[in-house]
Structure formats: C-alpha cells, structure tokens
C-alpha cells in the first residue's frame, strides 16, 4: 500500500503516520517528491487498509498497490529516478552511451578501446573482468587483474567504469574498483547477489534475464531497492524466443512498458540483444526512439581477434557511426546525448 500525503503535510504529520505504521509492525519507505511525500508500506495489505490511516492529519489517500513490485513502481515514486555516477546523471533528459569491450583482455586492448569510445562520445566505460560464459572452456576473464586495468583506464580517461559482479563473495572486491556494479542476465534472479549489491552505496546496472518477464525483472529490482539502494539502471539485453537468426530477441516493447510501470531508468544493450555487429546500430537507433535512457555497446579494436563476443562487437569506426546516428534520433525525440565529457582535452 502507498500513502499519499497532502502537499501541505508537515514533517510532524509525516512522522506520525510512519510511527503508527512501524508500531503496527509495518516497514515504511519514504519517497519525497517535488510536490508531495509518498509513504510506501510493506506488510499485509488488508491489515494496513484496516488502520484508517486516511483519518490521520496530512493524509490525502491510502492506495493499495496491486502490482507485486512496490518500491520500484510508478505509484510509489512519480518522478523519474536519477542515477548519479561520479558526476554524470542517468535518467534525466540526456542519453548516455556505455561502451567498451565484452572482456578486459589486456592493458593495451582496454586503454585503446577506452580512448576510442571516449573520443566518439561514450560517457561510461564497460568491460568484463569476471565473465559468466556458457562454456567452461571459454575465456573466463582476468578477474582482479582486469579490475586493476579498468581502474587505470578510469584514471587516465576519466570515464567511470561499469563491470559485472558474478558472486556475492566478490561484491566488496568489485565494488572497490567499479563505479557501477553490473548484474548479468544469468544472475538476474540470484537473490543473494541482489541483496548484497543492495548494501553497497554504488549504482547497480540490472540486466534482464534471458527468460524473465518484465514483472520478474522489476521484482529483482525490488530486492535491490528494498535492501536500501535505489540507484538502479535497468538494462534490456534481449530475451530467448523461438527465433534463432539473432542471438536473442531484443524486446524494445520493454522500454515503454518499464517507463510506464516504474520510475527507474532503462537502457538497452543491442550487442547481446542481437549477437550481430551489423544489427547493433539500427537497434540502437530504435532503442533511443523508443525512449531508452542510454545504450550499452560492445566495442573492440579488432573484433576478429576478440576473446569473447567478437561477432557482435563494433570497431571504433563503426561505434563513431553509431554515435552520429543516435545523436539525431535523440534530438528527434526531444533529448540529447550526454556531453559531460565533451570539450575535454585528450592527453597525447
Ligand atoms: C555482458 O554485458 O558482459 C554480459 C555478459 O551480458 P549479459 O549478462 O546480458 O549476457
Ligand atoms: Mn559480451
């Protein structure tokens, strides 16, 4: 249930409602919007409705939330959530481009890619150090050595780093290097991992599971928000369907659906969503047209030699072309690409 307070409600009135709920054994979550405060009530809905909270001073109305997700719902917070990443804001009018290799393979490969994507207009750097691979015989990532390389790339280029954490035991290690913790598609329903990243004061990029419904995806986000972290970026990366031509089927419906159901920002990964480099640009354009708050794109200096996902990786030149094309689409839908790093001098 949510309690919508009157616009004129005083702090004392808000506190009195919260105190009553806590005393009755409910947990409360405040959302202080521009116009009014909303109190999210977690606990038995029928019993909460029986408390006659609407009779308390300052309460406008008590509404049962019918969706199973509460804190991440639009009912709970009407304004879009803005995620702050080292001075960059995601979820507002500006569209962000997260780019970099699938895997960190070497210092040279990562630094070369980081400079290339930065020059092209990326505002965040991606790169996997712990790689969840379908085959145990495939490259598994450089692990902590990869995290060190990512940290060096951030120091040199100024780009914040997004990297995946695959296991609850590694959350503090990855969190000590990363600016954004990525939960991969395969781990979307690893609830122990979700509870651990909820405790870290860092933004979380939550990929949609390959077979997850939008509701299951939002319930995964609910774990993170319930655990105390509302800095969540949802990422559509394609789902499994009967179609085998593409690696996954990029579900762009999910973008406006999530925007309607939730206040959290949503970005799109057309690399994993398609599995083919030549499909990445058109689907990136479509994603921005559909209202995505950003893109996550795999870029490699030499995709033919990549240790993972070369087939879906763009060359730096193809990434530059993608940026030019999505820039126009963003303007057409009343937005613009983030230029937080524009105008910075690149060291020689
Ligand atoms: C990735 O982005 O590195 C990745 C492994 O993607 P996904 O979890 O979407 O398969
Ligand atoms: Mn990949």
From TrEMBL:
Residues 84-330 form the DAHP synthetase I/KDSA domain. The lineage of its organism: Bacteria, Bacillati, Bacillota, Clostridia, Thermoanaerobacterales. Keywords: Transferase. One of its GO terms (molecular function) is transferase activity. Pfam families: DAHP_snth_FXD (PF18152), DAHP_synth_1 (PF00793). The keyword Cytoplasm does not apply. The keyword Transferase applies. GO terms for biological process: aromatic amino acid family biosynthetic process. InterPro entries: Aldolase_TIM (IPR013785), Class-I_DAHP_synthase (IPR052899), DAHP1/KDSA (IPR006218), DAHP_snth_FXD (IPR041071), DAHP_syn_2 (IPR006268). This is Phospho-2-dehydro-3-deoxyheptonate aldolase AroF. Residues 1-66 form the DAHP synthase ferredoxin-like domain. It comes from the Bacteria.
